[in-house]
Specification:
Elements lengths: L3 E7 L6 E7 L5 E6 L6 E8 L4 E7 L3
Antiparallel strand pairs: 1-2, 3-4, 4-5
The structure holds zinc ion.
The site of zinc ion (ZN) has 8 residues, from loops.
């Protein structure tokens, strides 16, 4: 797997399409990234598997 990959999703606040850069060297992780459209904090949760990974985004205070 590439060390970095782009993941396209939508902002949970404003619904705009956003592209996240996932750093696979960190393994499964969660972090907060501000939406570049509405500037609200998006919680990004990355779950790493052996052959694939999944990404979930949610509002910070959910
Ligand atoms: Zn947004």
């Amino acid at each position: 797997m590439e060390p970095l990959s782009e993941h396209r999703t939508h902002c949970p606040y404003c619904g705009e399409p956003i592209t996240l850069l996932i750093d696979h060297s960190g393994g499964s992780q969660s972090y907060v990234e501000d939406c570049f459209v509405c500037c609200q904090p998006i919680v990004v949760q990355v779950a790493e598997g052996e052959a694939a990974y999944s990404v979930e985004v949610s509002p910070e205070n959910d």
